[in-house]
Amino acid sequence: MTAARLALSVLAALLALGALLPGQTPDRKPVPDRVWLGPDLWANRLQDWAVENGRRACVDDRGLPLRTAHLVSGRLDATRGDFRVRIELGRRQGDPEHAAGAFAGLLLGCGGAERSGLEACLVHAWTGPGTGIFAGLDADGRPVIRDLDPNGALGEEPPSRGEAFPSSARIEVRYDAARGVLRVSRLPAASGEGDPAPPAAEKAIPASRLVGNLALASHPGPKKRAVRHWFDELDPSGDGIILDRGRQLHALFATQYTLSRGTLTLTAQLFPDAFGPDSSVAFEVEGEKGYVERARTGIEPASCTATFRLEDWDDTRRRNVRLVYRRDATDGYSCSRTASIASDPAGRRELRLVATNCLHQNAHLLGGPRTDWTKQVWFPHADLVARVAAQEPDLLFFAGDQIYEGASPTFADRRELRLDYLYKWSLWCLTWRELTQRTPAVVIPDDHDVYQGNLWGEGGRSAKRDHFGGYVHPAWFVRLVERTQTSHLPPPVDARPIDQDIGVYFTELRWGRVSFAILEDRKFKSGCAREGMPPSGTGRPDHFNDPEFDRGRLDRPGLTLLGERQLAFLDGWARDWNGVDFKVALSQTPLANLATHHGGKLGFLLADLDSNGWPQSGRRRAVEALRRASAVHVCGDQHLASLVRHGLDRHRDAIWGFCAPASANFYPRAWFPGHAEAYRKPSFEEFGGDRLDGFGNLVSVYAAANPGGPSHPENPLLHDGMPGWGTVTFFRDTGEVEFGCWPRLADPAKGPQYEGWPRRVVPGEIDGPAGVLGPFALARVTRPLVEVRRAGRDELLFARRFVLDAKTPVLRVPVPEDGAYDLVVVEPETGRRAEIGDRRPAAPDAAAERLELR
Known about the structure:
By secondary structure, this protein is mainly β. It contains eight helices and 48 strands.
């Protein structure tokens, strides 16, 4: 490399990484102590690293192996030429002077050529393909190079002389591309004083092995005598280092928003403790002369969020906004993030919802003896995000389990609940942030989001075990999770908190003439290990697998599913159709127990009380409430995509329910009713049609993405679990809804979709009606709302919006049973109405009766 080229490379490094690891920022203000390491580094995990005395330090006190902090604003590519990295590091004050097997320095080439940046930033803790080459100092402070790609122990362990790891040292890692040699050496102290430097280490390394991420690495040695390390003054240069400030992860790194009835609600997510006590976030709107501040708010410290609610928002056009964060006077750091607020698609003929759920970041073998960082990490799910984006959704729905507390990518750290959750939550935010900054999104938490294997909320009470009903973690943690995931939703319709002062978020969202009821189907549900419940015989109170068991015994008096407050909300929601063509309920899990086989071996399970097929009486009340609104139900959770028509008194007399596939899971489920032996993939004739679910509820199954068939050749751990996403498209011209179910590998323009999809339906349509009321000839009304009641009763049977032919608007109202009915025909936008009392089904050839709305 020429001297001029080297100077430019060093200059680029200084410009891009000026605030990376020095104790002072470019304007020479000291960096305050905090958890967040700065925009250039990704820490594994958040709680294991901190800024201390202006240095980045590994602060884990449990002796966890191989803590890493990845350089996200640069990557290594030795195939482009030489590189050199200098860094200062040392033993953390107060730690043992020597810990056999400990080391500190740099990881080079993490993830390999195919994975770098965010794709490889999770490399830590375990060795295996893609871990990279370690270059740094061993336990005695001697330069060492180790290949960590082989599985097993953390590198070679040369004989230790028991010397102290230096309290401060400067090292240089240099690669000579022409010779293919990597060299690590200790540099003399800046003062020129101190002991002579130990010999440098050299090793022949192919350039192809030095492609990927560059990361700080601190390995503690034995837990009882662990040593931690600090790092400072990282200085990379050379053609083999690619720097890009555009890849920095700034303090304010993601947004989610909704827009409903002219009110915009947006939440900005910040990294933990990246802000001072007086910090704020400004909300700016782009105008003809640039961005103009419209609102400013403080940052909620526990959740690290800033939420804006702006009324009278102009929703007739897409508008660009900018969120600007300034820390405070201590370091002068600031950053911004733009978002694009969509216009309301009310005037469009179609509206498309995309539904996803259950997002593991990696395969379940990660961390075991066969760890492979090149194949087992799915984060940041770029393939899935690109396919969803290609469908240009009008609304995103994330139905729960945005994070998994265990092994995704790390096991739950209940001692550091807040930071552990925010570490995992930030991965989800980074996955979807390019979409959520321009598309409104409904996000609702499920059981794993609050670090529970299952959740029966029991009205918010505290519980020692989840099956007793309640939350097993502190109420502040539940509030934190819900604030990060739901604070951008419209305000709750009934904001009274529940037990332990836990809030609620159930609400309505109006978007594109579709009314979405956002429900909490876990929060009020009764626990399953309660007095009077029959024993399961399985060792788990929620799992029953005896095919002869009387499932009716499980429907005990006093059991709750949605709770009275949500049912009251749904009752009013069913009657309010002003500006609405469709009604949709969004919640976590199906109103049925469709999973008959569970887990990696797909073992038989008769009934799972975690599903919303139980309690049966609560399920019935929920389905009745949604039938009154002629709604469709969209959910996730089950890792089993399905499309069903629910039944109450007979098959197919109630609502459609669609469970979208999991996005990435490693706990498959299947629907194969009446088959308690070893699972095999059934044909539609064996699982479809009119059935009983695990609790005896009536369901008619139109599609189920059962696992089975040929294994995916390259990534079976991901694709054999039937992952993907769901679409729900609303057609205003016809009043139809189309459900789509897409394999994760599908081409969104061509498919194929999972077998049984797509399917178009008319919400609220009576299947096999007993008769038809009418016909009624209407004038100047093509989208009437019809409220149907039994004659002489005030209770609403159902409300349904009809789409009539514009030239000959004739209304025919199918009814489920013979008998007399009262009708109210309304044009909600004008209030014009007509009431018809005590009417019975007419003969098929009856003449149309003229009906005038006044």
